[in-house]
Amino acid sequence: MIRWRRRTPRRIVGRVTTASPDNPPPTLSATPTLSLAILACATFSSAASIRVSDPLLPQVAASFGTTAGEASAIVTAFTLAYGLMQIFYGAAGDRMGKVRLIAITTLLAAAGSLACALAPSLLALTVARFATAAVACAIIPLSFAWIGDVIPYARRQPVLARFITGQILGMIFGQVAGGILGDAFGWRWVFGALAIAYVVAGLVLLLHLRFDPLTRLRDSSGVPGLAGLVRSWRDTIGLLRDSWVRVILTAVAAEGFLFFGAFTYVGNELRHRFAIDYTIVGLAMTAYGGGGLVYTAGVGRLVQMLGEAGLARVGGTLLGTGFVVLVLAPALWVSVLAIALCGLGFFMLHNTLQTHGTQMAPKARGAGVAAFATALFLGQSLGVAIAAPIVDHIGATPVFLGAAIGMPLIGFALASSLRRAPHRR
Question: Does residue 127 lie within any of the structural domains?
Answer without folding.
Answer: yes
